Amino acid sequence: MYSLIIYLYNLCVIVVSLFNPKARLMRRGHRNTWRILRREVGTHTYVWFHAASLGEFEQGRPLMERLRREHPEKKILLTFFSPSGYEVRRDYPGADIVCYLPFDTPLNARKFIRLARPEAAYFIKYEFWRNYIEVLHHQGIPVYSVSSIFRPGQIFFRSYGRGYSRCLHRITHLFVQNEESQRLLAQIGVTQVSVVGDTRFDRVIDIMQTAKPLPIAEAFARGRKVLVAGSTWPPCEDILIDYFNRHPNLHLIIAPHVVSEDHLREIESKLRRPSVRYTEATAEQAAEADCLIINCYGLLSAIYRYAEVAYVGGGFGVGIHNVPEAAVYGVPVLIGPNNKKFREAQALLAGGGCFEVTDAASFAELMDRFTEQPEECRQAGRAAGDYIHRNAGAADLIYRATLPRLLGKS
């Protein structure tokens, strides 16, 4: 049944690709995978990391980069499922080969593993590809699940999902984020499990420690109270821009989730104070503006360092974006109401490092409070930063647990 569903999904992608550019990218990428593997693999074996998209890639990245740093003789293969992951990281220098992972059919699984020659496989978070895992298991290749998290409603724990859940028994070891995941897995007989936390914390600390100075952002933020709003969408932009327009002592750096000319103009039309786009500004122009609009990708994780307060978008729509990315800088983080499925956000809310905004009034109340009570703002920031550092270390635990087998020592 599982393989039949995969075949039907593949057929749907073929049909949709006739008019959807993202689906066309995926189909083209799957075809190119076989050419890439035949051309690049040669006689080497590879340590294989698979991520669905960019978020999962960032969770696997600390492991890849440590392996590359300490054992450069090891070859690394990185695969993606989503075009939004592959197209952004196709030239990632931390891997020797980067390609798509074709659909999880029995034929594709056997063909891919034969061509790729993996000596170990790391599947990040929610990636449980049954046919690939079965082939790896039968060939004696260790398979690790990294930063995985399980909830009662998932298919593995339903009566109709027992067949699919068998793939979890084939995984050599699961490194899960929390005790609940371990308990749920034990209920279905999966016991090769360790609770290590989320490698995302290690990644955001790495980013913070290696972030390069941004002279334009520094010139803008120097001596000012700055709200950095990251990954924003129009509903939250309406709230925070309205407050910004009415509070001249507050300065705003806004990094929209969608950087398009139409969206940038929409933001500018809402502003009643001087603004400048990042890529079009000099340091002098940035220092004179009240709002700095980040009109490019790749800077947000470093820009949070200039915040006195951070707002992480998505909570009035599909769900909040990367809260740890802001919290690691030791600043209070504001988020929208769609945050219940995000473990780190819930923990930060409980610990006083994060605050929920439900409307314009609650946003204004929080911002006013932080302005009038700066020590409360600093205390909230410390709570946020402490939470990140306290929960770091998962990457090291996974690395030390799996490295001996990679080096042939166990």
The structure class reads alpha/beta
Strands of the largest sheet, in order across it?
Answer: 3-2-1-4-5-6-7
The stretches of 5 or more residues where confidence is low (pLDDT under 50) are none
Tally of contiguous helical segments? 19
Helix content: 40-55%
Distance between the termini: 37 Å
Total DSSP E strands: 14
Overall average pLDDT: 92
The whole-angstrom Rg is 23 Å
- Please report which band the strand proportion falls in: under 5%, 5-15%, 15-25%, 25-35%, 35-45% or over 45%: 15-25%
How is this structure best summarized?
The chain is of the alpha/beta class and 410 residues long. It has helices spanning 2-16, 21-40, 54-70, 83-89, 106-116, 130-138, 162-170, 179-187, 200-210, 215-221, 234-245, 261-270, 283-288, 300-303, 323-327, 343-351, 360-372, 374-390, 394-406; strands at 46-51, 75-80, 97-100, 118-124, 143-148, 173-176, 193-195, 225-232, 250-256, 275-277, 291-293, 309-312, 333-335, 354-356. Helices cover 50% and strands 16% of the residues.
